[in-house]
Design brief:
single chain; alpha+beta; Immunoglobulin-like; 3 domains; five-stranded antiparallel sheet; disordered C terminus
Amino acid sequence: MAIEQVKALSNFYGTSLNSRISGYDRLTDRITWSLGYPLVNVEVHKNQLYEFISIACEMFTKYAGYTEEYLIFDSKIYEQGKGIRLDKLFTHTPDLCATYTSVALNMNIKNPKTLTTTVTAGEGYQDIYTFDLSDGVLDPTEFSLRVIDTDSNDEDVRKMLVTANHDADAGTTDGSWDEWSHIYTGTGSLGDFNLSLSGSNEEIVQIQFQPDAGQVATTAKVVVFATDQLTTSTVTSLSSLAFGAYDALVNDYRKVIEVFSWEEGSTSGVNTLFTIEQTLAQQTYFSYAMGQYGFDLVSWYTVKEWLDLREKLLSQKRSFVFNPLTQYLRMYPEPASERFYGIFGCYLEKRIEDILHEPWVLQYATALTKIAVGRVRSKYSNTNLFGGGSLETEILSEGKEEKDKLEAELLEGTPGFGDAGPPMFFIG
């Protein structure tokens, strides 16, 4: 972990919402620098630092790393006797697919449109994904690109949007491509992507990758994940919201932590003239208007509670059971042949790239690093150093104390922490 040179000051400008943490490697630098490196040696392997960061991310996402999302439900994709995987609802939800069409992807475990290619350093741009614009098939336009160095296991993840308009008569193809959300775990980007056209009518589009000679020594694996399709031939809006359902670093869809609400769509209109609710509201209005307080708001609330209980006892309103381990949700009673829509309120785990800059993750990973360094030094506590000094092992107890304090903050802390939803109101 040698620091080669003093970095430019621009590398250290950062705010809470514009953090300098761009990946695991930058976070390991922050941890080791806080422990005195490079002026003093820190007895910890880089793989240990990566593992400590992973532990911190897993702890944080378990208790506080979630976003509140609303998923659109379609009974047509519900499987009788089995339920529905909630990641199937991501492409039905505009906020999670944004400018992209609701393509029926097979999301049981992994998207099948995945291609892995090995590229060799020093051989220029090499083809990693090819599709034909003239075959009449709607080709994928949105890709998640993942590069893994076979020697160091450093990773480079980014997203690409390709738009192309093929003119068969003229034998030409017009279009553009763009990259965004670029994240890497090593000291730099592992290479560059490019787009190339071939074929007699420029109908073959080739996505290419060229390894960086300074980052990839021998070979690298490039995983191309075709995630979605556009019917438009122009780039519209690129944002994290447009890719909100997918975590590129773990190469999988985000997981639902809990489902907290369900509302079923209705086609009965707004006519409530002959309902119990309308009758109660009318009685309440006339009682107050005429100065007769025989029916008040307390009675209204009591009757509404009874109506809610009646819905549950008579199965007039569907209930559900969600298993976060399998991500399957099952409804009771299950949807019949009649198609209907609804909306689920859910807590989704944040993406890794969104929680790496959280202060708690840095502090917890630093505490685990202190414990590891303290344990290593305690093995040589009786060793005398040159000049008569001795190894400092108090860092072990310091790390344990910080670890316990951070875990208590996560489990028992203010709203946003703890294994519970945030409060809906405050008194005071």
